[in-house]
Amino acid sequence: MSVFSAPYFHGHEQVTHFHDRETGLRAIIAIHDTTLGPAGGGCRMYPYRSDDEALVDALRLSRAMTYKLAFIESHFGGGKSVIIGDPRRDKTPALLRAFGRCVERLGGRYTVGEDVGISVEDMEHIREETDYCVGLAGESGDTSPPTSFGVYRGILAAVKHKLGRDSVEGLTVAIQGLGAVGYRLAEYLAKDGASLVVADIDQGAIDRAVDHLGAKTVAPDKIIAVEADILAPCALGGIVDDKSIPTIKASIIAGAANNQLLEDSHAALLAKRGILFAPDYIINAGGALNASDEGPDYDRDAVYERISKIYDTLIEVFERADNENRSTVEIANQMAEERIDTKRRS
Q1: Domains in the chain: how many in total?
Q2: Model-level pTM?
Q3: Does residue 272 have an active-site annotation?
Q4: Which of 31, 159, 305, 329 reaches 20 to 30 Å from 89, CA-CA?
């Protein structure tokens, strides 16, 4: 499949494929837009079913990063990278160092951080070969805590706008995915008095949520249609599509996963059903905000204060969507593009 004819190619500036013979590394780095600065975005390692699937994921994720970083007024543009492979089986220090050399070859056009399948510890191996990396131990660190805090604040904004409530107390939240972000989010919500219904392929994560948070469980393929006030997708993307939308019973979708909608147009279908959707690249921007501030002047308290304002940003998006009778994704995309265009003209 040609990059230029690939689904979700959206004016990307550069898409580079890398291979390392010695380690077997196969990676793609997609740079979407550098108007705001050199591209920044996490590296995802995942056992894609095909090279084409990996390419599509890199294209979708990198565009979302452009919009995410525009909203947080970062000095980075949008990029993303994917490594084709099972992180539980194929990931080695040598492979990660090989990937670091790939990043280094781009000469600073792309700075890498964590994503699914890549940990803070993994970033140390990547750093051995390049300085163009963030999310490092001893600096801004793990992006999961700030991401989960931002999603929590975003859920509160959605609850305020849709339900007229200041708390999730007494509400039921269905959480799909109990990884590092999903579980921390569950802790925030349980502490505030929400009832949790959770699903994950990791039985250990399920057991912990049941034992420590009083969660109920359903099978992973049932979580989207569960009776709940809020659906919080915190695993992989593409779960909201033509097939799943008619089954959703929640009145709010607000979670940490990237690219939760299979297509942007699905936001309008949700709106027609009266379901409020929190655009994922806004609600999950806490980790990116945290990493983009990494450096000698990093101030955790100041960063978390900025992450807290995800609440205000989403309220603005929700209100504009209502006033203009448009989907929240249409409004968010327009707002991000306006910020980028302003920078481009300056």
Answers
A1: 2
A2: 0.90
A3: no
A4: 31
